[in-house]
Specification:
Length: 141
């Protein structure tokens, strides 16, 4: 069965946010045909998947690395890879961490072009968490 991800209106954040030090490949919409398997990821936090223990860091970069490694691991466990990621929603607790979080996330989505929504929230489930990211992937049938 043929399968494609069509990424509509690709862009890079270094052009859309020139005042910020970002380099993320994103797009405005993703069309998936004929569908494949859709994987909805729970919001991933800076904790280990195997034991649910928080990483020992209050650095937004280190927390984002853990979050994105979790996302990558879960997609791989579902039978896919990061190229199948179609959407991310990024929650941060401090606008001052935005560039660090997005730069780090960008390392994992280079060339992927998912759609992205970013929110600044008052708090996450644990006070030491600075970032949470949920995602959706569509894996070929």
């Amino acid at each position: 069965m043929a399968y494609t991800h069509t990424r509509i209106r690709r862009f890079n954040t270094k052009e859309t946010y020139p005042e910020q030090n970002l380099d993320n490949d994103l797009c405005q919409a993703v069309v998936v045909e004929p569908g494949g398997r859709t994987v909805y990821l729970r919001g991933q936090c800076p904790q280990n998947l195997d034991d649910a223990k928080n990483i020992d860091s209050h650095d937004p970069v280190e927390q984002t690395h853990r979050v994105m490694k979790n996302i990558q691991q879960l997609i791989e466990e579902a039978g896919g890879d990061m190229s199948h990621l179609v959407k991310v929603v990024v929650y941060i607790t401090d606008i001052r961490h935005r560039e660090a979080v997005y730069r780090t996330m960008g390392e994992y989505i280079k060339g992927v072009y998912p759609v992205s929504t970013g929110l600044v929230v008052q708090a996450l489930a644990r006070p030491e968490w600075l970032v949470e990211i949920d995602g959706t992937a569509v894996i070929p049938a």
